[in-house]
Design goal:
Elements: E1 3-7, E2 43-47, H1 51-83, H2 89-135, H3 141-177, H4 181-211, H5 243-267, H6 289-298, H7 302-331, H8 339-364, H9 366-386, H10 395-422, H11 427-449, H12 454-486
Antiparallel strand pairs: 1-2
Helix pairs in contact: 1-2, 1-3, 1-4, 1-5, 1-7, 2-3, 2-5, 2-6, 2-11, 3-4, 3-11, 4-5, 4-8, 4-10, 6-11, 7-10, 7-11, 7-12, 8-9, 8-10, 9-10, 9-12
Length: about 500
C-alpha cells in the first residue's frame, strides 16, 4: 500500500525543544521549529512500498560519486604546497579556487539548481573539477589559475545541490517512516561524510605509492614545524616530483573525476521524483536577481550571522592542515612521499568519527560534541607549538593527524547538519552562505601560507576557534532562553 507523507500546514504552530539539548529519541517528538524559517507548508506525496530503500540507495550513490571526485581533488589539493611549490603556485591555485567559490556562492547555486535541477547541477559541476585535474599535467600560472577559477565556480553549486538533495529527501524519508527529520538528516549527512572522508584514504594511498621515490639525503629539520617560514621552501628539504610520477598521478585522478560525473548521471534519481518543484522554501520560488537577493538576505538572519565565525573556522582548519601541516611538518622534515601515508590516518579517523556522530548526538545532544571538537583542536594546536617533527619518531605524525581528523569530522558533519536544521526551508541560500564563509576561511589559510610563519598561524587558529565557539554557544543559549520562555 502506498504511503502518504504529510507535512503540517503553516497555520499550525509547533512546540519544539531545542535539538541541541535533546538527550534521547523520545525527546525529539517535542521539538519546536522557528517561525521565521521552519513553518512547513502543506506538502503531501504518495510513494510505493519500499521507497525508503530507494532513497537510501540514492544517498549511497551520491556518497560514492563524491568519494570518487574528492579522492582526486582532496589529494591533489593537499599536495599543492609540496608538488607545486615554485613561487607559491600551489597555494595560490588553492586560494583562487575558494576566491571564485565565494563569488559563485552569491548567485550560481540557486540559479543553476532552478535552471537545471539538483541532479544535473551535480553532474555539470563535477565536470568542472575534471578540467582542473587535466591542468595538473602541466602546472603553470597560465594553466592552473584559470582552471582553478572554473573549479571555484562549480564548487558552490556542487555542494549546495548535494546539501539540498540530502536535506530534502531526509524530510521525505522521515515522513514515510514517521521519524523525526532532525535525526534522519543527521544520519544522512553521517553516511555521506563517512564515504566522503574516506576519499582522504584512497586519494592519499594512491599518492603515497605513486610519489614514493628517491631519498633526498640529509635534512635540516630545525627549520621545520612551528619554526617553518615561507622562505624555508628553498632550503632544499622538499624534493621536486619527477615528471613520470606527476603524469601517472594526474591520469589516475582525472579518470576518477570523470567517473564521478558518470555515476551521478546514470544512477541517481532526479530530485523531481521527491517533489523538487514543490519545495516550499522561499528560495525554491525565486529566479534571476531574486535568487541573488535570497542568498544575500540570508546574511541578515541573526543565527546566520552568529554561525559565520565557526563556518570560517571550518575552512581555516582544513586549509591549514592541507597546506601548512603537510609542507611544514611532513614534507620538510620527512618527505613529500610520506604525506599520503600520514593523511590516510587523518582520513580514516575522519571517516570513522563521521559515522559515529549520529548515534552519539542522538543521546548526548549537539553541544557536547561541538565542545569536544574544540578541545581536541586546541590540544593539537598546543602540540604543534611544542613538537619538533622528527622522522625518527614517525608515530607522532600519525597521532596529530588522526586527532585533527576526529575534530574535522565534527565540524564537517555537525555544521552541515546545523545549517540544514536551522534553515530547512531556505536550503539553497543557507548552504550557499555556508560554502561562502567556509571558502573565506580557506582563502585566509592558503594566502597566509605564502606570507606568514607557522607560529603566527597557530596563534591565529586559536583566536578564530574561540570566536567560532562563542558564536555557536550564543545560538544554543538563545535557544535555551526561548525554550524556557515557551514553557512558562
Amino acid at each position: 500500500m502506498a504511503k502518504k507523507v504529510d507535512f503540517e500546514s503553516d497555520d499550525r504552530k509547533f512546540s519544539f525543544e531545542n535539538p541541541a539539548f535533546v538527550r534521547n529519541a523520545e525527546d525529539f517528538c517535542n521539538i519546536e521549529k522557528r517561525p521565521d524559517n521552519s513553518e512547513l507548508k502543506s506538502l503531501t506525496r504518495t510513494y510505493d512500498p519500499g521507497e525508503e530503500r530507494r532513497i537510501l540507495r540514492n544517498i549511497i550513490i551520491i556518497s560514492i560519486a563524491f568519494t570518487l571526485q574528492f579522492t582526486a581533488f582532496n589529494s591533489m589539493s593537499t599536495l599543492q604546497s609540496s608538488v607545486n611549490q615554485d613561487d607559491g603556485l600551489g597555494n595560490y591555485a588553492n586560494a583562487t579556487i575558494y576566491g571564485a567559490l565565494v563569488l559563485s556562492c552569491f548567485f550560481l547555486p540557486t540559479f543553476l539548481i532552478s535552471k537545471f535541477t539538483v541532479k544535473w547541477t551535480l553532474v555539470f559541476s563535477v565536470f568542472g573539477y575534471s578540467i582542473y585535474m587535466g591542468a595538473q599535467f602541466y602546472p603553470t600560472y597560465a594553466s592552473l589559475l584559470p582552471t582553478a577559477i572554473i573549479v571555484g565556480l562549480c564548487a558552490a553549486p556542487l555542494w549546495s545541490a548535494k546539501c539540498t538533495y540530502l536535506t530534502h529527501v531526509g524530510h521525505q524519508y522521515s515522513g514515510i517512516l514517521g521519524n523525526n527529520s532532525e535525526v534522519v538528516i543527521t544520519r544522512f549527512f553521517g553516511i555521506f561524510f563517512l564515504a566522503f572522508q574516506s576519499s582522504h584514504i584512497w586519494g592519499n594511498l594512491i599518492a603515497s605509492f605513486v610519489l614514493a621515490g628517491e631519498d633526498t639525503g640529509e635534512k635540516n629539520i630545525t627549520v621545520c614545524g612551528a619554526n617553518f617560514c615561507p622562505s624555508d621552501v628553498k632550503s632544499g628539504n622538499i624534493r621536486d616530483v619527477t615528471p613520470t610520477s606527476r603524469y601517472t598521478l594526474c591520469a589516475i585522478y582525472l579518470i576518477s573525476s570523470i567517473a564521478a560525473a558518470a555515476v551521478v548521471a546514470f544512477f541517481v534519481d532526479p530530485l523531481t521524483r521527491y517533489g523538487e518543484r514543490e519545495r516550499t522554501g522561499d528560495a525554491s520560488k525565486l529566479s534571476g536577481s531574486g535568487l541573488f537577493l535570497a542568498t544575500a538576505n540570508q546574511m541578515t538572519k541573526p543565527y546566520q550571522l552568529l554561525l559565520i565565525p565557526i563556518t570560517i573556522w571550518s575552512g581555516v582548519e582544513q586549509g591549514f592542515f592541507a597546506s601548512d601541516f603537510t609542507q611544514a611538518y611532513i614534507s620538510c622534515s620527512w618527505d613529500v612521499g610520506k604525506v599520503g601515508f600520514v593523511l590516510i590516518c587523518y582520513g580514516a579517523c575522519d571517516a570513522l568519527t563521521s559515522i559515529s556522530l549520529g548515534p552519539i548526538v542522538k543521546y548526548v545532544g549537539r553541544v557536547p560534541i561541538f565542545i569536544f571538537g574544540a578541545l581536541v583542536n586546541s590540544a593539537v594546536i598546543v602540540a604543534f607549538f611544542l613538537w619538533k617533527p622528527d622522522p625518527a619518531v614517525p608515530i607522532i605524525f600519525f597521532v596529530v593527524a588522526g586527532l585533527w581528523g576526529v575534530a574535522d569530522a565534527i565540524w564537517q558533519a555537525q555544521i552541515n547538519s546545523l545549517y540544514g536544521v536551522l534553515f530547512s526551508q531556505d536550503e539553497e541560500p543557507a548552504f550557499s552562505n555556508y560554502r561562502l564563509w567556509e571558502s573565506l576561511g580557506f582563502i585566509i589559510a592558503f594566502i597566509s601560507a605564502n606570507k606568514f610563519c607557522i607560529d603566527v598561524k597557530l596563534y591565529s587558529l586559536g583566536v578564530i576557534l574561540g570566536l567560532g565557539m562563542t558564536g555557536y554557544l550564543t545560538i544554543e543559549y538563545l535557544e535555551w532562553i526561548r525554550k524556557k520562555r515557551s514553557t512558562t
